[in-house]
Design goal:
Bound molecules: biotin
Largest sheet: 7 strands, mixed
Strand order of the largest sheet: 1-2-3-7-6-5-4
Distance between the termini: 37 Å
Number of helices: 5
Structural class: alpha+beta
Number of strands: 12
Radius of gyration: 18 Å
Strand content: 25-35%
Length: about 240
């Protein structure tokens, strides 16, 4: 469904589910404007009214065990990338660990997945996405944003893009093959190849991405071969 304005589509959808509303699987709420859009790790999400995709999708009891919930963080960005490619041609879009969507060194979309677990299962998941479509200027200190319009020079149809995302998501959810999905995720990963600069609490260093483990932790290999495992916020990409 579409609603012209709300605080946050993730929060609204979560409240509706928690209130016991019967909402069908794969329903979504899309809006033109959020007054309290949420990003990862307590950040806010800036989006100019009516310019972008701001939506949250409900997955009811997805066929993914709770301990494998990172698979959703692999699957959803891939579906979004395929959706953009399907209607606009190749832009060399990557997933920046864990699930940001990047083109070059710039952020095209952010994803906020919130799972509700009960007795070792995912009761429901809310897949939230903010995809920069037709916005060209940002007022906050949003780091290195970019939009489809900036990349291609023309306006994009937000509704067509929304339909394309839902199509690709439905397809991908029909058959989830853990290994294949992980391979595809790794193949699409920003900075998959070579050594790059990172920062942790001890300082700056160069490393290459060795893997992302089943819990979604980033495994970096230093130039001396030593491997280190990081959770989100424990390591920063230096761009
Ligand atoms: C991030 O990169 O920090 C994640 C941003 C996620 C933003 C989307 S916009 C729609 C949905 N509702 C929210 O409040 N957040 C997500």
């Amino acid at each position: 469904m579409f609603i012209s304005e709300t605080y946050s589509t993730n929060t609204l959808l979560k409240q509706r589910v928690a209130a016991g509303e019967q909402i069908p699987d794969l329903s979504f709420i899309r809006t033109d404007y959020q007054t309290a859009g949420r990003g990862q790790a307590g950040n806010s999400w800036e989006s100019e009214r009516g310019k972008n995709i701001l939506m949250s999708i409900l997955l009811k009891e997805p066929a993914i065990p709770a301990e494998k919930q990172f698979l959703l963080s692999e699957l959803f960005p891939l579906a979004v990338i395929e959706a953009v490619e399907a209607i606009g041609g190749p832009l060399d879009i990557k997933v920046k660990w864990p699930n940001d969507i990047y083109v070059g060194n710039r952020k095209l979309a952010g994803i906020l997945i919130e799972n509700s677990l009960s007795s070792g299962r995912i009761d429901y998941a809310i897949l939230g996405i903010g995809l920069n479509v037709n916005q060209t200027e940002w007022v906050s200190d949003a780091p290195n944003p970019v939009s489809l319009k900036m990349l291609t020079g023309h306006e994009w149809d937000v509704e067509k893009l929304t339909d394309s995302i839902m199509d690709r998501l439905r397809d991908r959810l029909e058959h989830v093959d853990d290994h294949l999905l992980h391979e595809q995720y790794m193949a699409r990963l920003f900075r998959r190849e070579g050594y790059h600069p990172y920062r942790n609490k001890e300082g700056d260093f160069w490393a290459r991405i060795a893997d992302v483990d089943a819990f979604g932790r980033l495994i970096l290999e230093m130039q001396n071969g030593e491997k280190r495992t990081y959770l989100l916020k424990q390591v920063q990409y230096l761009l």
